[in-house]
Amino acid sequence: MPQYELCLIYKALQRPLLHTAIKRTAETILERGGIIRSFENLGKRALPYKMSAHKERHTEGNYFIVNFDSSGKQLEHMKEYLERDIDVIRPSFLRKEKEFRRPCLDGPCFWGELTEEKSKEVKRFMGKTEKL
Amino acid sequence: MFNRIKCASNLAKQKCMQHENIETGLPWVVSQSIRHRMWRTAPKNKSKIFYVPEPKHEDPEEHEELKARYRVYRATMKAIRSKFYKDNQVFMETMTAGKSDEDIATEDREHIENLEINDKWNQAIALERKAFEEQRRLKEERKKLLYLYNEEKKRLKRQQRAEEIVQREMEASKTFITKENLDSVIEQALNSKQDYNFAIDPQGQRIGQGSEMEGENKGKPHSLKDLEDFDRNKQEWEKDFAHAPRKL
Q1: Which of A43, A48, B2, B208 could share a disulfide with B222, CB 3.0–4.6 Å?
Q2: Are residues A35 and A81 located together in one domain of the fold?
Q3: Rounded distance, CA A66 to CA A41, Å?
Q4: Does the keyword field hold Mitochondrion (chain B) (predicted)?
C-alpha cells in the first residue's frame, strides 16, 4: 500500500473539540482499511491568508499531520468525507517518496507467497471443491 | 487486357511447379489475362464480355517457307551436335590408349601421394579444431558459471533487502495506531508540538529553533551562539562549494 501524509488544517477549536475532530478523521482512515503510522501536531498558527470554509472566514487554524498507508482507490472517498467535515478547513494528501512496497512483488517469493495468478487459480480450485 | 504467362509472381510459380508435366518434367505454362490497373479478382469488363479477338492474319506461303527452313535448321544442328560428340569420344579414347603402363602407374602413385598429403592436412586441422572447440566450450562454461554466480549473488542481495524491509515493518507495526489506543495517542500528540520551521546548513545540521522565531521573537535574528557557529562554519562551506560554478 502506498504511504501518504495527510496535512490537515482544523478550525481554531478548543482542545476537547479538536480531540474529537482528530478522532473522527482517524476513524475514517481506519474504517477504509488504512493503517495509521503516526500523528504530528504542528500547533495553532495564523493562516497565511484568510480562508473560507463552510460559509465561514478563518484567520487561524490548528495544523495537524497524519502519516498513514492506504489504497489509492480509498483516497478519493476519504477526501470527499473530509471536505464535508465542518471542523476541517483544508485537507490535503501528499504521497511519500519512501513507501512500503512488498519485497516479493517481482520474482519468486522467499517465504512461499503465491503470485497473483497462482493465488487466483488456487481460489478457483478451492471454490470448486467447496461446491462439491 | 494482355495475355501473359502467369509465372510472373512467386505464388503462381509454385502453383505451376505443383502441376508438372509428367512426360517432360516441366511445369505447365498457364496463361491468364491480367488487368494491371485493376485488382486481381476484377471481373471482365461489361463491354468486353462478348468480345472475341480476331485471329491474326497469317500468310500461308510464308508459313510453309518458315516450316521448311526450321526443318533444315533442326537437321543441321543435330548433325553438328552428333559430330562433336563423336569427335570427343575419339579424343578420350586416344588419351587413354596412347599411355603406357608406366605412365598409368606413376599417375596412380601420384594420386595416392596426394591423398596421403590430404589426410595429413586433415588430421592437423582436426587437432587444431579440437583444441579450438575445447577452448570455446570452456569459455562458454565459465560464462555460464559466472552468470549463475551473479544471479545467486543478486538473489541473496534481494533476499537480504527483503528481510530487512520485513523486519523494519514488523518493528514499525508495533507502534501502529489502532482504535483502542487512539484517544491516548491523540492526547500525546496534542501535548507535544512538532516544529519544522528551522534552517539547515549544507551538512544537514540544524541552525536555531523554529519556535524561537514564533510569537514574541518573531522577526528577531537567531541567537548569538547560532550566529557564531554560522561564521565558524562559513569557511568550510565555501570550500565545499568552491568547485561549483557560481550563478548570480
Answers
A1: B208
A2: yes
A3: 9
A4: yes
- Please judge whether A39 and B178 are an interchain contact, meaning their C-beta atoms are less than 8 angstroms apart: no
Q: Do B35 and B42 form a contact (C-beta atoms < 8 A)?
A: yes
Cβ separation of B196 and A42 shorter than 8 Å? yes
Model ipTM? Answer: 0.78
What total number of domains does chain A contain?
2
Beta carbons of B179 and A30 less than 8 Å apart: yes
- Residue to substitute from B182, B188, B213, interface A, most A β-carbons within 10 A: B182
Parallel, antiparallel or unpaired: strands B206-207 and B199-200: antiparallel
pLDDT tens by residue, B161-172: 888 888 988 998
Question: Taking CB atoms and an 8 Å cutoff, what residues of chain A touch B196?
Answer: 42
pTM: 0.51
3-state SS assignment for residue B216: helix
Q: Are residues A91 and A115 in the same domain?
A: no
Residue A82 sits in a domain whose CATH number is 3.30.70.60
By CB atoms closer than 10 A (0-12, 13-18, 19+), residue B15 is: middle
Give the residue numbers spanning the domain of A50. 3-95
Question: B72: Cβ–Cβ under 8 A, 6 or more apart, which residues?
Answer: none
Residues A109 and A78 reside in one and the same domain? no
Q: Which of A5, A103, A34 is nearest to B167 (CA)?
A: A103
Enumerate residues 23 to 42 of chain A having a beta carbon within 8 A of any beta carbon in chain B. Answer: 23, 26-27, 30, 35-42
Pair B164, B171: CB distance under 8 Å = no
